[in-house]
Amino acid sequence: MLTQTHLDTAVKRGIINTAQQADLISLALESEDDPSNEGTGETPVAGADEDLRLVGGGNDLFVTVGILMLFSGVGFVLQTWLGNNQMIRAALMAVLLWLVAEFVTRQFRMKLSSTVLGLGFLGYTSAIIGLYIWDVLDLAKLADNPQLAFGLRPTIGSYGSAFFGGIAVISVLYFWRFRVPIMSAAIAISLTGLAFLWTFLYFYDGVTDGRVQLPTIEQIPLILERALMMPLICGIIVFCTAVYFDLRDRERSTVWSDCAFWLHVISAPLLVHPLFILATGQDVVLGKIEPGMTASIMLGLLISVFVYVALAIDRRSLLIPTLAYFGSLGVYYMIETTANSTGLPPLALILLVIGLLVIMFGAGWQRIRALIVRPTLPTSLINKLPPIRV
């Protein structure tokens, strides 16, 4: 029976092109919807759902458990042999993880196992860089005298850039070798950390040079609100990169689609938090929303915009963090009055509201996309977005 894997292999070997693959998938879906095919027991090569491809099956889970057990044992052995020599232990673990990935990832393309190996390799290589910087700067002395941190400014920029830049380079190399999608998230996080570092140093230098005056207590909320521009800009860049990957793989059949999934997961918090605070007028010092109808209206508009964008690009990975954030923070204040009048706990109402939304979107995602997205966007743009499978 023809499967999605067969089609992917056919594209890689040049037997068919991407457009022909999409036509075959559409034909399979049309056959599935045809009533005359009921009872045949045939399974389409691609479903109408968002295929995350995070787990490759029972054997993948089995191998993942074996990997965790193997490296747990190796960790105890290295600790026994090498003692507190953390640098060498981390280096040996990283080398062993790479060698196992050459077998598990390169030869068998096991998805969950490859993700675990990739995260493990990235963790140990990051530890190597961090331990090196810790020793060179002798950061242990800061525990006894925190004021010494002010003297690190001449070197913190270069070493901080080496840390975040090193993680980004390692992630790129690992992705180039093994094509593990979660490395895209690691690249995004490391570059975002680099942007935050230099933004902080820029304002720090402005204060020490006398170009920027220290804010008064009254000015602190305004300064904190302006500081939200940095995560918002980073979130927009990560989101646009994810959308670019989505547009170049409408049928979600390549590794770039999986990379886009992880980038949407990273971009959602970076976008939601600053927009939530800026739009609702939340007091970033006390952590409360200003009372009134304006905050509620702006919160509702924000939720609607994120839902619409998630439907348009067919990415629940963008919507789930959004609903979780709004449900835990924004909706609490909106329904607090209702909870106080009914005697129900606010958490119960939050769970009810968010649970109903998740079930509704989960059960009828593509139908909701067809009802909302198709009539509101031009055909030329719809043809570039992931197809609406109804």
Secondary-structure blueprint of this entry?
Layout lengths: L3 H9 L5 H16 L24 H25 L3 H23 L2 H27 L15 H26 L4 H26 L11 H8 L1 H19 L7 H26 L12 H21 L2 H27 L3 H18 L1 H12 L2 H4 L8
Helix pairs in contact: 3-4, 3-5, 4-5, 5-6, 6-7, 7-9, 7-10, 9-10, 10-11, 10-12, 11-12, 12-13
Task: Tell me what the structure shows.
It contains 15 helices and no strands. It has 390 residues and is mainly α. Among the domains are: 1-47; 48-214, no CATH class. Helix 12 (316-342) packs antiparallel against helix 13. The longest helix is centred in the N-terminal third of the chain and has 27 residues, at 111-137. The chain starts with a helix and ends in an 8-residue tail after the last helix. The chain crosses the membrane at residues 61-81, 87-104, 116-136, 156-176, 183-204, 228-247, 259-280, 292-311, 318-335, 347-365. Keywords: Membrane, Transmembrane, Transmembrane helix. It comes from Ahrensia marina. This is DUF2157 domain-containing protein.
